[in-house]
Amino acid sequence: PEPMGHMHLEFSIILPVRNAEQWLDECLRSVLQQDFEGTMELSVFNDASKDKSMTIIEKWKVKLEDFGIPVVIGGHDSSSPRGVGYSKNQAVVQSTGSYLCFLDSDDVMMPQRVRLQYEAAVQHPTSIIGCQVRRDPPHSTERYTRWINQLTSDQLLTQVFTSHGPTVIMPTWFFSRAWFSHVGPFDEGGQGVPEDMLFFYKHLRKGGKVFRVDHNLLLYRYIRFWKHADRTTIWTHRVHFLEERVLPLWESFTIWNAGKQGRRLYRSLTTTSQRKVVAFCDVDEKKIRKGFYCYEDSQEKPKPQVPILHFQAAQPPFVICVKLDLTGGEFEDNLKTLHLQEGRDFIHFS
C-alpha cells in the first residue's frame, strides 16, 4: 500500500465527469451516504465539461471533506473531450486507495454498495466484482437489465461474447488497484472505442474471473453523455475474441441461425474458422428447404457451400446467433430439448 500523508486509504471512488450537472447532486450524495466504516476518497476527473459540473463538485468537496472523505479533483478544459477511457485512467492515477470503485456521474449508489463489494473483492482478489442494478427509467432496456441481474455464476464467464458486452457492467465494477495495474489501463482511443469491453477482455485473458454481489446496489440511469462506441468496431472485437478463446478448442461447429446474423458471423470469420463450420441450423422451414448457404464472396474454389439443417439434426458445438429472451421462450425451450452444457456445447454470440 502506498502511504498518503498520515493516512492509508482503503479505496477510491473513480468518477469521470462530463457535463453532468443535472445528476451530480444525487450521485455525490450517494457517496456521502455509504455505510462503509473504513477510509475512502473520491477521485473526480473532469473531461472538458462546459456546464456547471465543476461548481457542483467544488461545493460537494467541502461537504465530503467535512465528513472525512478526501476529494481529489483533476481535469482539463480544452475545447474537446479526451474520452471516458482517458478520464477513468487519470482518475485512477491521481487516486491512492488500495481498491477502486467505479461510478458514473449519472448513477446513484445504494448505501451498502462499497461495504458489500469491498467484502467480495477481499474474497475474490482476481475478479471484477459487479452487482445487480435497478434501471431508471424502470422499463428502459428490460431485456438487458434482466440479463445483467439474472446471469448465473457460470454464465458470468460463458456469456462474455454477446452483444450485451461485459457480464457485469462497468458502473458497478470494483477491484483492487493491484489487479488494475496487472490488467493495464483502459484504452484511450476516445470516441467510438468500447473501452469497457476491451478492458474486460484483457481481464479475462489474464485469467481474471467475474463475481456479482446479488444485491441491488446501483440505480443505473439510461442516459449517456459520452459518445457510444461504434457498432462495427464492437462486432469486430467480439468476433476476434470468439476466435481467440473458443474456436481453437473446437474441431468443427454449427452456427445456430441461417438468417442475417448467422451469415454475418460466418462471413466475419477467418478462412481457418470458416472451414470448421459444418452447418447452419434453424427452425425456419423455408431456410432449411434451401438446403445450403453458398458463400459467394469467398476466394476459395469451389466456393464453400454450407448445409442448412433443422436444429434437431445438427451437431454441437453451436455458436448461437439468436437473440436471447426475444421469442417468448420458444428458442430457449428448443435449446433445452438438446440437453447441452453451456460453454462446452454451445456459446451465445448474439
Automatic annotation (TrEMBL):
It comes from the Eukaryota. Pfam families: Glycos_transf_2. GO terms for molecular function: hexosyltransferase activity. Residues 12-183 form the Glycosyltransferase 2-like domain. This is UDP-GlcNAc:betaGal beta-1,3-N-acetylglucosaminyltransferase-like 1. It comes from Jaculus jaculus.
